[in-house]
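Handoff note, outgoing to incoming analyst
You'll be picking up this chain. Sequence as last confirmed:
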Amino acid sequence: MRVSQWAEIRRLAEVEGLSQRQIAERLRCCWRTVKKALAMPQPPDETRRPRRGSILDPHKPKIDALIGKYPQLSAVRVWEEIRKGPEGYTGQVSVVRSYLRQIRPTRARIYQEVFYDPGQALQVDWGSCGYLKIGGTLRRVSVFVAVLCYSCLCYIEFCLSERKTEFYRSLVHALQFFGGSSRQIIVDNLKAAVLNGWGRHACWHPDFLALCGHYCLEPIACARRDPESKGVVEAHVRYVKHNALQGRDEELTCWEDYRRLAVYWRDQVANVRVHNRTKERPIDRFRKEQDLLRPLPAAPFDTDEIVSVVVNSHARVHFDGNRYSVPVELARKTALVRANADEVRVHYQERQWACHPRSYDRGQLICHADHQLDALKKRRRVRATEVEEQFDALGEEARKFHLELRRRPIRTSVHLRRLLMLVRVYGRQDVIAAIVRALEYHTYDAAYVETILLQERRRRELPSPLPPRPKRQELIDEIDLQEPDPGIYDRFCNPEDEEENR
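Most recent structure output, in case you need it:
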């Protein structure tokens, strides 16, 4: 008897006052069932209903014995064993699988909740965030997540690789964001921290130990295949993927969008929401922990990526899939490349020779105009003439114009001499302004620069200045001068005549 039937019989008898026969006719059941239900003061227990027999019942003792001896035996193998013999099992393997789920010993791990003291530990980890196309290169985007275990205050930073330098740089930025360092740092077995081994037997990376020593951190490595031992940061990695990144495909179109999202989501969402476990906002709980963090050293840890490279014959260095220009004096020499998140610097003999903005595209040539101009001069194997040096001394714009002139099939010296003449006539400031306009219009010709100067003087209603001497000899012949009179010099030769005239 079901509970619903028992309840309906009692209602019909007590409320509507029907007899047992009338109740049986209305519910279309036996009058004995009605009588039994009215005699029951409590509803029937449906869980104690007799279970129907199964085709597998005769074979269950054999299955129990197999699983007791071989706990990891698969359902298919059990099915094959109980089918043997004339009275073997004739049913489907799905019934066997269902029974094995009931009797097989569980392998589920029992976890113990861990509580951290304020300022005790910091957990860090990487998370994969898909791919982003930068220029013509598809780069993998990763997120670095660092969480203080007590307050659950988090720091995130998106990176385009999970290399050692990116990990160290992001960790230093996290410590600077927290304003101090905890006593311990918990990491998994990433190669930037652990060379081999795990847990207590981990062999640490020397550079990671140097970073921990700089900030007085005790490194702790998780056991192998045990992400739950740093569950605080694992939960925040999932939080970043499901909250910060989910549904933002149209917003995250370039690398700067990821950088802005990290700051916004960290300060406006993650650290100001009420945490599920602590029931407090991380920013409020952090106030109890902030004073217990160890102050950071005055000098931050050096996280620049340092690579020794050989400058090729084109005065270029290769770094991260791109080529960067250097002065021609470094060609075929061994230099050091120091790179951070924004710049690539080239050093040689304790001196910085070049500095370029870092490109995250691949196969690009990042070249400084001065380096390219010097390389072109060296390629012709001709020393810079006095005219070229005088023109280059006018400034950066003049050197860019000089570089473009050299790329064209013209006599560069002719244009440079004409431009230097314009400087003597119009002045350096006006000529440089005209050169800037010529660069904007991508027109590289001394005549065009002179035209710009003339148009500018007409606009300002100024007369056109005359050159110090005519450009052509025929102009000298056309000058009309008064014929000189030698008689005016006689008075200087005959002083007596001059006295008589007085």
